[in-house]
Design a protein that fits this description.
Layout (H helix, E strand, L loop, with lengths): L1 E6 L2 E4 L4 E9 L1 E12 L6 E7 L4 E3 L7 E6 L4 E6 L8 E11 L6 E4 L3 E6 L1
Parallel strand pairs: 2-11
Antiparallel strand pairs: 1-3, 3-8, 4-5, 4-9, 5-6, 7-8, 9-10, 9-11
């Protein structure tokens, strides 16, 4: 079994920065892709960013620039740096990973429990 645990959320003021972390643990062989999604009440989860093991990144619409995803492959950790936070960035941020567990021939999707980001104007 694999667990994803996010941290780093909280209350910030508009214009400030925040860095979210997500650590994957368990019987992990490798994690090809690690993602950040976000969700607000009543809405679907939307992609914030994704990063492959080779360092290829992709960002959700209009997010590149203020959002930066990075990974520590050895620590099975993904980060999301958010700069110049805006009230519309307030959401629950979820970590998602496509994981090959030890001995597996196909990857499995896992989600974290989410970390809340609140932005005061």
């Amino acid at each position: 079994q694999v667990q994803l645990v996010e941290s780093g959320g909280g209350l910030v003021h508009a214009g400030e920065s925040l860095k979210l972390s997500c650590v994957a643990s368990g019987s992990i062989d490798n994690i090809p892709n690690m993602y950040w999604f976000r969700q607000t009440p009543g809405n679907q989860r939307t992609l914030v960013a994704v990063m492959t093991t080779s360092g290829v990144t992709n960002y959700g619409d209009s997010l590149e620039g203020r959002f930066t995803i990075s990974r520590d492959i050895a620590k099975n950790t993904v980060y999301l740096q958010i700069n110049n936070l805006k009230p519309e960035d307030a959401a629950t941020y979820y970590c998602h990973a496509l994981v090959y567990t030890v001995g597996a021939t196909r990857a499995t999707n896992y989600w974290g429990q989410g970390t809340q980001v609140t932005v005061a104007s």
